[in-house]
Amino acid sequence: MNAVPQDPEPARALERWRMILGAPASHYSELGAEDRQRDAAMQWLYGRDEELAQRGVRKGGALGGGRGGDRSGDSADRHGGAGDSFLTTVDWLEGITKLFPKETVERLTRDAVDRYQIHDLVTDPRVLERVEPSPALLKAVLRTKHLMDPKVLELARKLVAAVVEELMRRLATEVRHAFSGTRLRRPSQVRLARNFDVKRTLRGNLGHYQPEERKLYLEHAHFFTRTRRRVDSWQVILLVDQSGSMLSSVIHSAVTAACLWGLPGVRTHLVAFDTSVVDLTQDVADPVDLLMKVQLGGGTDIAQAIRYAADLVENPRRSIVVLISDLYEGVSPAGMVRGVKALVEQGSRVLALCALDEEAAPAYDREMGQRLADLGAYVGAMTPGELAAFVAEAVNG
């Protein structure tokens, strides 16, 4: 009699739960060789989580000692295991790229730099030569570039350039789409099929509709010509808060400014601030160089930045001032409010964006946001594409 094959699904389900729960569930299921490697890779990273210790879960498991931010405690907290070891960040990175799909690798490296501050992902030249560029690593580079020697800084710059190039490619498409309405359609006697005006033709011939035949007879066909709209020059002034919490917005502000740079009818300014103001407009055309110059951290003097923007404005009714900040003013909240009020009253459009990135999920001083909104400023969050569309609507309106 032939043996009945066993259903592999329950066993596989146990393996999945074992991978989710980690070493404490090791007695429930044995893992295969490749899954043990995956388990060791995740343990190397997530085993340093301090919450595990607070819940009484022992750290370490099947891994060796880590470098680059390993805060998992002293060796007394670790115990042996049969799994493979990942002794360094280089080994760990090389391992996960073989063991996991690209999306998982991106999540693991993002957690490594954001959650566990494993800085040698971007300060060790051996790692930088292997790592796949990602927005999370770009942020880590900008946070730690002051720690890098010239050789490492050059490798880090290549990583920055790769990520910025991808961001530019995506946003440039959105900007072109937003500004594609810069042409007006006017009636024309030139009968070209591509310029056939369907709506005007239908409206002009409705009187010739024959309900019995259910046909519309065209007596007059209408066409249009495409002429470029005359665009008055607008100023777009981006004021970017350099505090660490605004890092994602700093990156996307630089990329947005580069995409707006050189568009017909738009003059773009990019100004970074903390307790001082730095005009980065001359670097806008090279967002990589610009980002490598940004200095993160420090206090926040929004009022001073708004005064600087007010001095840049030439024609208030043709200006858009975009304050990109969490609105936590560290020097003069009253001065900040006065500055925004003056800009609005003179006719400038003021946007207080508490986030400018692809997630557009702000965390900000809501009380200050309400005060600015009451003055007539737009307060909220936008993706870079939405900001480009806002500018295009103003310019082409």
Automatic annotation (TrEMBL):
Superkingdom classification of source: Bacteria
SMART domains linked to this entry: VWA
VWFA domain boundaries: 233-392
Sequence segments annotated as region (Disordered): 56-82
SUPFAM superfamilies assigned: vWA-like
Composition-biased stretches (Basic and acidic residues): 68-81
UniProt-listed PANTHER family: OUTER MEMBRANE LOLAB LIPOPROTEIN INSERTION APPARATUS, OUTER-MEMBRANE LIPOPROTEIN LOLB
Protein name: VWA domain-containing protein
Source organism: Catenulispora yoronensis
